[in-house]
Design brief:
By secondary structure, the chain is an alpha/beta fold. The protein contains 9 helices and 5 strands, in the order αβαβαβαβαβαααα. The termini are far apart. The model has no long low-confidence stretch (mean pLDDT about 90).
Length: about 200
């Protein structure tokens, strides 16, 4: 992680939060920035160098930049723009926590599984399939709702219990058990076989 952070120009000692999102309204990025306005000052003394990296581009960029400036978060929130797909693994590897602040209409959430596969815990809001992915790992990885206050509380809670986290293998292991292409393919084939048998019996 230290080597990856050096390559990306990040402080090896920092606490790095990451999200990968299109900068669109339903993604909840405004709520995440608002949450950082609570988290950053609350943890300034204990977590020097706490920073949120936002990978992605979209029509909300200007309004997010204004929010960051108005709330004095220039040192705590960085909008990185579009990051090439081949470079994303390094950002996952650099992160301590991935945050998925979706407000509505979240599907499966491939970035959630990508982060978990990199050994990174994911804090997500209870939208779409996110609870189905995260709750079996640890209920503390789900916020109580999608509001800025709930996201802030989730991040602050994680900062408190992260020291007792079993580590990266916990998250990668979940992906290897449930979400590899071989496992998904087997499950899809099984579903169709069961459907065909049920139809034949009808």
């Amino acid at each position: 992680r230290a080597a990856v952070r050096r390559a990306l120009g990040l402080d090896a000692r920092a606490t790095v939060l990451l999200t990968v999102r299109n900068l669109a309204p339903r993604m909840g990025l405004e709520n995440l920035v608002e949450a950082m306005a609570t988290v950053a000052p609350a943890r300034a003394a204990r977590d020097a160098g706490l920073v949120l990296l936002v990978c992605g581009e979209g029509r909300l960029r200007q309004s997010l930049e204004e929010m960051i400036r108005e709330r004095g978060l220039a040192a705590s929130v960085r909008l990185l723009g579009r990051v090439p797909h081949d470079d994303l693994p390094r950002y996952y590897q650099s992160a301590d926590l991935f945050v998925l602040p979706t407000e509505a209409m979240e599907g499966f959430g491939i970035v959630t599984v990508e982060a978990l596969a990199s050994g990174v815990p994911v804090l997500g809001t209870p939208a779409g399939a996110t609870p189905e992915i995260l709750a079996p790992i640890d209920p503390r990885l789900l916020t109580r709702d999608t509001s800025p206050a709930a996201i802030a509380d989730g991040i602050l809670s994680w900062l408190d219990w992260r020291a007792t986290d079993p580590g990266p293998s916990r998250y990668r292991g979940e992906v290897e058990r449930k979400y590899t292409w071989d496992r998904v393919t087997d499950d899809v084939e099984r579903f169709y076989e069961e459907t065909v048998r049920a139809f034949a019996r009808a």
